[in-house]
Design a protein that fits this description.
The complex is a heterodimer of chains A (326) and B (567). Helix content of chain A is 71%, strand content 0%. Chain A is mostly helical and 326 residues long. In chain A, α1 packs antiparallel against α13. The N and C termini of chain A lie close together (10 Å). Chain B has 18 helices and 22 strands. Chain B has a 7-stranded mixed beta sheet with strand order 8-9-10-1-11-20-12, with helices on one face. In chain B, strands 4-5-7-6 form a 4-stranded antiparallel beta sheet, covered by helices on one side. Chain B has a 3-stranded antiparallel beta sheet with strand order 18-13-19. Chain B starts with a helix and ends with a strand. Classes of the chains: A mainly alpha (326), B alpha+beta (567). The interface between A and B is large, with 72 and 78 residues. Chain A: It is found in: Cell membrane; Membrane.
């Protein structure tokens, strides 16, 4: 219990530190939302619009950095993330609400799939050394070593285009309304195939490698020999004795990977124009949309912390050695 | 243990997923997608009455059809002009053409463009069936007057009065140079808008205007508009307009070539190979110039670049055709040939007789002569200023702006011919903006303002009224060009009471620009677009430039009203 409270306290402190850094960093960079917006339109917006935009965004009130920080914390305490400048006057929470499900859906599912497939393949590769399974690692590592955006661009160049079943961009067919029906869900799945395939291909190697190497270590242990000697089936020894123990490092890795789903995906989303939170973040940075940037950073920070906390707990449950008695 | 047995294990874990997917399909089976009727026969087209429009505005847009907010989906995608209409339609690709009366059947300026009298057109209704009256027009101006955040053009409105069918708007200063802006004011329905608590933050999810279209559906990716009954003019042939947002120019290019997108405004590098050559019969682009100039802005407080002879010599050797063909992919920003910096042919009517046809190009020898006559000397191949120091220049633009970076490389090569070592540099975009505003730069490619007259461009480059010392941020005249005569001529032009006084002021401005070359013009801004003639014809082009073709300009409505099915 004491251990758990310590961990919780640590996570709370980290969250506060992250929120504070999130607040100050965008404000210390040069540039402001109004000029960024004017620049984005490069002369297409009336030059006089600077005045009206400043008033519109409420930037004409001069507040010191400290006052802004206090009011930001106050807003956060009420669950208010502020108003996005880029999509003014949409609240940040609404912007995040429409983009986050796409990211979690695409990358979350793909991460779980990659973990599952990679771990399974790693178990096989580690157990059946010297067979065809040895080829799994070099082949998957080859794909993992190609920079992701390059792999995705090649996939777009060769697999999409007019007449292809696979679309090159977007989250669903233009014209469809996001709605819970077969047509929309089918279109969304269709649009997610290529991005998720490319993520899978480029990320599965890591799981295979860590699992295979742990399997190799574990299979040398005495208890495996004993299990074999007891006359248990090979499959039972592999899964229940070897893989179960070999899995521990992968579990904490999986926790980290899940936490990074939200933040580590902007490349996928930029290349495939996927309407997720990573693409939104890239654009928010481009136009100095502080409230939106902070909101997205907050979501990323909290999801990483939450995933870490869960991984901590899972480890606590799985491995008795991490528990301290008394 | 065999591979098959792990296979069956995998099948076991798949089973619940399959069941879930099937039950999902069954549950959802009874409802059909509200947008599925939209899909029609796929890519749209003349037969189905659909036109697909797109803009690179990010992967999603938020539900916001407030026409007055520059950040709303209606503004960034351009569909606000299909729902809300202006008082008059100004054709900025033919700026000398009189404005076409639109919601105002008549308009008249008086008191040296300080008073505007408008007559509300008869028989115009909003899409909710209520008639449009002078009250609505007056309200639209009053809203800007009362609400600084909504007055995006900062119009100095002093009073608005409506009587009968007429509306009189009085301005604090002469609006001669801002006529186009004033007349482009959109008319809002007073009976709905006066009930809105804060028009500056309302997202107007059910926009009601006098235009031929109404909002059919809004999704973060695509906004669909459909025609309405009771439009005051001939109804458009296009039954449905679909505005899709794309994450960037790459996504736009592939959508254009696949036919999913028929009208957009985006920069396509190597457009000939990537776009027009894919279907030369239908894939078209038209990029007419507007009255603005991109060019090399020079910090004129910086020695020896405070010497006009040096700036003129530099202008003489810069190869504008190379910049057009390489940096603008041969289409995006038309080259500015006139020595006055005004793009042609659009600016022809404004160019003084003495500069008609005069191009800003020369040979290296005449540039060198200009320099040596002004006291510069050569040490071998290196140009030295009158004090004997070699002339060097650092030219800076943001790293990601490929077209400007290419331009800087070309200029650097050109200037080498007259012995100037000009180094292109890449900068962080935000730091660059701050540096430009504060005058902490030697030279940079930058655009100028544009408008219905050359005033906006010259004012942006030469106005001494807002002159700031280096180190204080300026919103205008970034080059710190200090010339009292130019400042006076600009004020004279904006406030002149008659045409001859305006002509005289403009001639003065051009003379100062040519003699002093405060900024070295290279290319013009554009009102262009990429479009497809596969399903719809009747687009404006060089042979019939009836409107700027950009889908986010107010004239987009005029373009849509001109389009006819191709088959």
């Amino acid at each position: 219990m004491k251990y758990l409270l310590q961990r919780l306290g640590f996570y709370l402190f980290t969250a506060w530190a992250a929120i504070t850094i999130n607040f100050f960093i965008p404000r210390l960079t040069p540039g402001d939302p109004v000029t960024a917006l004017m620049a984005q339109y490069q002369g297409q917006l009336d030059p006089q619009a600077v005045q009206s935009l400043t008033v519109l965004f409420g930037l004409d009130k001069h507040q010191s950095l400290w006052e802004q920080y206090l009011s930001y914390l106050g807003q956060l305490a009420h669950g208010d993330l502020g108003i996005s400048f880029k999509s003014f006057p949409a609240p940040v929470s609404e912007v995040i609400g429409t983009t986050l499900p796409w990211t979690v859906g695409l990358v979350g599912v793909t991460t779980v799939l990659a973990f599952g497939l990679g771990t399974l393949a790693g178990v096989l590769a580690g157990w059946r050394r010297g067979s065809w399974a040895d080829a799994l690692l070099p082949v998957s590592t080859f794909f993992a070593s190609i920079p992701y955006f390059w792999l995705a661009l090649i996939a777009i160049a060769f697999l999409t285009g007019s007449g292809s079943f696979l679309p090159s961009s977007g989250g669903y067919e233009p014209g469809l309304v996001p709605h819970f029906d077969p047509e929309f869900i089918g279109s969304a799945i269709n649009h997610s195939l290529l991005p998720s395939l490319t993520i899978l291909v480029s990320s599965v190697a890591g799981w295979i490698m860590s699992m295979r190497n742990m399997m190799v270590t574990v299979t040398a242990e005495d208890y495996i020999t004993v299990a074999h000697a007891k006359g248990l089936s090979g499959r039972r020894v592999m899964l229940s004795y070897a893989a179960r123990n070999a899995l521990l490092p992968s579990v904490s890795g999986f926790g980290m990977a899940l936490g990074l789903v939200v933040g580590g995906t902007f490349l996928v989303e930029v290349v495939f124009s996927y309407p997720g939170i990573g693409l939104e973040l890239v654009q928010a940075i481009g136009v100095k949309d502080y409230p939106l940037m902070q909101g997205i950073f907050l979501v990323i920070t909290l999801s990483v912390l939450a995933a870490n906390l869960l991984a901590d707990l899972a480890y606590l449950a799985l491995d008795p050695r991490t528990r301290r008695e008394g | 243990m065999s591979f098959a047995s792990t296979g069956s294990a995998a099948r076991r874990t798949m089973a619940p997923l399959v069941v879930a997917a099937i039950s999902l399909a069954l549950v959802a089976g009874c409802s059909s997608n509200p947008g599925s009727a939209n899909k029609g026969d796929g890519a749209g087209g003349g037969a189905s009455g659909v036109l697909n429009v797109g803009m690179p505005q990010g992967a999603t847009v938020k539900n916001n059809s407030n026409p007055l907010l520059p950040t709303s989906a209606a503004a960034v995608l351009g569909y606000r002009y299909m729902i809300y209409e202006p008082l008059a339609m100004v054709n900025l690709v033919k700026p000398t053409e009189p404005a076409k009366p639109w919601l105002a059947s008549k308009f008249e300026w008086a008191d040296n463009y300080r008073t505007l009298t408008l007559t509300a057109r008869d028989g115009v209704t909003f899409s909710d069936g209520k008639p449009m009256t002078a009250e609505d027009i007056a309200y639209s101006f009053q809203l800007m007057k009362d609400n600084k955040a909504l007055n995006t053009a900062a119009l100095p409105i002093e009073s608005v009065t409506a009587s009968g069918k007429d509306v009189t708007v009085k301005f604090g200063t002469s609006q001669f140079v801002r006529q186009a802006v004033v007349l482009s004011t959109l008319v809002l329905p007073k009976h709905l808008w006066s009930a809105i608590a804060d028009p500056a933050t309302d997202t107007v999810e059910n926009p009601v205007g006098t235009g031929p279209y109404t909002l059919k559906s809004f999704t973060p990716q695509t906004v669909t508009l459909t025609t309405r009954n009771g439009y005051w003019q001939d109804a458009p042939k296009i039954k449905e307009l679909r505005y899709t947002t794309y994450s960037g120019n790459d996504a736009i290019t592939s959508a254009l070539t696949s036919g999913a997108l028929e009208w957009t405004y985006a920069f396509i590098p190597d457009a000939k190979k990537l776009y027009t050559a894919k279907d030369p019969e239908h894939n078209k682009l038209w990029f007419p110039a507007n009255l603005s100039a991109d060019g090399l802005w020079i910090n004129t407080t910086n020695k020896p670049f405070d010497n006009p002879a040096l700036r003129r010599a530099m202008s003489l050797v810069i190869n504008r055709q190379d910049i057009f063909n390489q940096a603008s992919a041969g289409y995006f920003k038309p080259a500015v040939e006139s020595i006055t910096g005004l793009p042609t042919p659009i600016g022809d009517a404004f160019i003084s007789p003495e500069y008609q046809g005069k191009k800003s190009e020369g040979d290296v020898a005449s540039a060198k002569k200009l320099l040596t006559d002004a006291g510069f000397t050569y040490n071998g191949d290196t140009l030295q200023d009158p004090t004997g120091k070699p002339v060097t220049l650092t030219m800076t633009d943001p790293a990601g702006w490929g077209d400007y970076q290419t331009t800087l490389t070309i200029i650097s090569d050109n200037l080498k011919q007259i012995g100037i070592k000009a180094t292109p540099e890449k900068a962080d975009q935000d730091a660059w903006f701050t540096a430009i505003a504060n005058g902490n730069f030697q030279a940079a490619m930058h655009w100028s303002n544009g408008g219905a007259t050359p005033y906006d461009m010259y004012q942006n480059i030469m106005d001494g009224a807002g002159l700031q010392p280096v180190g204080s941020p300026a919103t205008n005249n970034y080059g710190r060009f200090d010339n009292k005569e130019a400042t006076q001529a600009l004020a004279d032009y904006a406030n002149a009471a008659d045409e001859s006084a305006r002509k005289a002021a403009l001639a003065t401005l051009q003379r100062i620009f040519v003699e002093q070359m405060p900024m070295i013009p290279t290319s013009a801004g554009n009102y262009g677009a990429e479009y497809s003639t596969k399903n719809w014809t009747g687009w404006p082009d060089d042979s019939n430039p009836y409107a700027p073709i950009q889908p986010t300009q107010v004239n987009a409505l005029d373009v849509v009203l001109h389009l006819k099915p191709a088959h």
